[in-house]
Design brief:
Length: 287
Amino acid sequence: MSGGRAGGVFREVPLHLVDDPALPSRSAMDDAKMEALVESIRANGIIENVTLVERGERFEVVAGHRRTIAARRAGLVFLPAMVYPPAHPSLRVIQAHENGRREDLNPVDEAFWFTELLERDCGGDIEKLCGLVGEKLHYVDGRLALLQLDEVLRDALQLDTIKIGVAREIQKCPDAGYRRYYLDCAVRSGATVNLVCAWITEWKNIQDASGPPRPATVNPASDGPRAEPYDPLKCYICGRSDRRIPEQIAVHASCREAILDELLTGASAPAGPTSEGAVHAPRQTVT
């Protein structure tokens, strides 16, 4: 055994005595990146030691969870590690640095991790948490706020099917049923933050013009709203909503009423499916 930094001691720890962290900062790991790490460890060994804390006769991972998993898959018997005694003051700082510097840490995972640190190590003091993880207040506050999102939005964000800005915009819709609907639209179309903002604004305008919104418990797929909902994938020309993504065009309401609506009234827009290749890209009007 040899002395280490800030009270840690370097040891070659038998891998069968090493346990995963009680609260991993990551809920999922990229398979391709993990396999690349396994191959690197097989070829070169573990270049950067993991950090462990003693738990009786066993050890718990503090920093280096991915490296520990990869070491197991690579068939290592011993794990090179800096080992700390329980409740050592450096442990949380090490974990904060280890995870905070990784750009691929999922924001929802980070939010759960920040919450655990806030309650367990910072006594609810958010400024102390900021100092611990080395981030500014607005960043930490923003991450913690993600846990207030609708569960389906939080799950989609955790799966990386939408981005943070899109999730926050959809959350502004007060109707839970339509939040799920617009989430589906956003995932299908790869919508930007600005586009989703326009969707929710239009939905609110329609609700304001026709009365209070329906109760949040009503499912739009089975119970029609009192006012027609704003469907961001519905073509203004043919009236169909399908998987072809509409284009946005800016049209004044007065121009639409005076010109476009009049033309549509006199034209016979197709009512059913058309043969493949005969459909022009639909255009969605924004008034």
